[in-house]
Amino acid sequence: MPALGADMQFGTVVSWRVKPGDVVKRGDVVVLVETEKGVVEVEIFENGVIESLVITPGQKVPVGATLAILGGDGAQSAATDTARVVSTPVKAAAIEPSRPTATTPMMEEEAVKRPVPQAPQMLEATARPRISPFARKRAAELGVELSAIAGTGEGGAVQVSDVERAAATATKITAETTSRKEKGLDPAAMRRVIAAAMARSKREIPHYYLATMIDMHRALDWLAAENAKRSVTQRILYSALLIRAVALAVRSTPELNGFCVDGAFQPAEAIHVGVAISLRQGGLINPAIHDVDKKSVDEVMASMLDLVNRARTGHLRSSELSDGTITVTNLGEQGVESVYGVIYPPQVAIVGFGTIIERPVARDGLLGARRIIEATLAADHRVSDGHRGGRFLCEVGRLLQEPEKL
Amino acid sequence: MAGMSSEILDAQVREIIRRALSDVAPEIDLDTIDPAKDLREQADVDSVGFLTFVIGLHRGLNIEIPDADAPKLITLNGCAEYLMDRLNRR
Questions:
Q1: What is the DSSP letter of A230?
Q2: CA A141 to mean position of chain CA atoms
Q3: CA–CA dist A224, B68 (Å, integer)
Q4: Which residues in chain A are closer than 8 Å to B23, comparing Cβ atoms?
Q5: Cβ contact (<8 Å) for B47 and A304?
Q6: Which of A120, A136, A195, A262 has a CA between 20 and 30 Å from the CA of residue A18?
C-alpha cells in the first residue's frame, strides 16, 4: 500500500485492474485504492508479471502492507511490495513514528472495522469458536464470519443472538462504507488528514514569508490576444502562466524544489508543481502537474484542466498525488488580495497568488492604472533563506513580463 | 433551425445548460439558481470550472464561443439569451 500523500496511513483496495499472470510495465494502473482523498488509481513502477494478489477488494490495510506479489521477468522472482513504487521521501515521511493526535479517530475506525467478514478462506485458519449447530446455520444464512462473532454464551460460546447482533453491525458498517463510496470521499476523514498534515507543517517547519507585487498587464494583454485566436477548447487561463513561471524560476533556486526528510533536504531533479484544488464537498487536494519546466504553456493548461476536473470527480492517479515537489495555491479567485500558504510536508515551499486588482502605479514618473497580482512565498527556513527566496519571487515576476517566452 | 418553434429551442438550450453545469457543479439544482445573478458565485465555480462549463456549452450546441463573449455567459439569463441568439442566426 503506497503512501498517497504525506499523512496517509491506511488505504482500502477497491478493485484490481490486473490478475495473476498479467504482464505489467512501469506506469500501468494496477489497483484502485480508496483514501480519505477519494479513489486513486495506483500505478506500478516496475516491470514484471503479477504472481498473486494478496489483498482482496474491500480490505483496509496500513501503508507499507504488501498488496500483491510481483515476479520479475525470468531469473529474479522476489516478492515486491508495491509500496516501493512510491518515491522514498514521501514514503519515509508517511511512516514517521511521531503520530499527530488528530489521527486517533482513524485508528478507532480501523479497530471497529476489523471484525467485518472479508476473506472466507481465512475461516479454516482460525481456531473454531464454540458454536451451536443452529447458530452456525444462522451465521451461514446471514453471511457472518464465525471468527468475527463475540460469544456471550457459557464459556464464550456463540449463540444465535450473538450471530444476529454481529450481522446487524456488519450491515451497518457495509451501509456506511457504501454511502461513503457514493460520495467519493468522507469530508470528516479528509478534514483529519488536512489537520494532521498542516499541524505537522506548523510544528516542524520554520516558515518564512515574502511577498511582492507583480504587474500582470503584459501577461493579460498577451493572453487576451492569444485567446481571441483560439477555439474555446484551446483557451489558456492565466493560472497556467503562473504555474509555468514558478517552474522556470525554481530552476535557479533548487533549494525551494524538493523534500525535507528528517531535517535533511533532498532536492528534486524534476519540477512537479502541486496545484492546490478546493473540492466541492469541502477540503482540498494538491495533485501535481508533472515536469512543468519541460512543458509548453498549452501543455500545462491542458494538464491543469484535466487534473482539476479529475480531482473533483475523484479519478486521480497515485503519481499525481505523491509527486509534487513545490506547490502553487491561487486563492485570488475568491477575491482575496494575498494568500500566505502553509507548506505541504515534506515539500519545502508554497507559492501563493492573490486576486488580480487594477491599481494606480507610478512608472517612469507617470501614474497609471495597472493590473497587479500579489505573489507570496512561504518557504522552509531549514533549507533556504529569505535572500534566495526573494530572488525566486523576483524571477517569477520578471518571467511574467515576457509571457510569449513562457 | 428553421421551422423549429422557440419553445422547443428554449427547452433544448436549457437542457444543454443544465448538462454543462452538472459537469462542474453536479450537486447544484438549476432551479435554485437566480438566473439574473452571477452563476459562478452561486454555484461556487472557479475559472477552471467556468471554462469547463463554456466548453460544455460549445460541445452541447456545436457552436464556437469566442473568448470575448464569455462575460455574457456568467448569468443563466445571459447564457439562454446568447445561445438562443446564436442558434437562431445559424
A1: S
A2: 41
A3: 9
A4: 309
A5: no
A6: A120
Residue B80 near residue B13 (C-beta atoms within 8 A): yes
Positive or negative, the Cα torsion across B72, B77, B83, B86?
Answer: negative
DSSP type of residue A75: S
CA-based nearest residue to A375, from A346, A403, A398: A398
Q: Beta-strand (E) ranges in B1-90? A: none
The three three-digit cell numbers of residue A37, written as one number: 482523498
> Closest Cα of chain B to A263: distance in Å?
37
> What's the pLDDT tens digit per position in A165-217?
777 665 544 444 433 344 456 778 788 888 888 999 999 999 999 999 999 99
Structural contact between residues A67 and A21, judged by C-beta atoms closer than 8 angstroms? no
Please give the grid coordinates belonging to residue B61.
450546441
**Residue ranges of A 328-347 with Cβ closer than 8 A to chain B:** 333
- β-strands A326-330, A264-267 pairing: unpaired
Cα separations (Å) of B79 from A227, B33, B71?
20, 13, 10
CB atoms B52 and A309 under 8 Å: yes
Q: Which three cell numbers stand for residue A20?
A: 495473476
Report the alpha-carbon distance of residue B62 to residue B86 in Å, rounded: 11
- Please name the residue of chain A whose CA is at the shortest distance from the CA of residue B23: A309
- State how beta strands A316-317 and A38-43 pair: parallel
Residue A221 contacts B where some CB pair is shorter than 8 Å: no
SS3 content of chain B, % helix, strand, coil (to 5): 70, 0, 30
Torsion of CA A101, A106, A107, A112, to 10 degrees: 150
Q: Which residues of A touch B54 (CB under 8 A)?
A: 232
pLDDT in tens, A25-74: 888 888 888 877 667 888 888 888 998 888 888 888 888 888 888 887 54
Is the Cβ–Cβ distance between A247 and A292 less than 8 Å?
yes
Is B55 an 8 Å CB contact of chain A?
yes
CB contact under 8 A, B51 and A228: no
Q: Does A239 touch chain B (CB under 8 A)?
A: yes
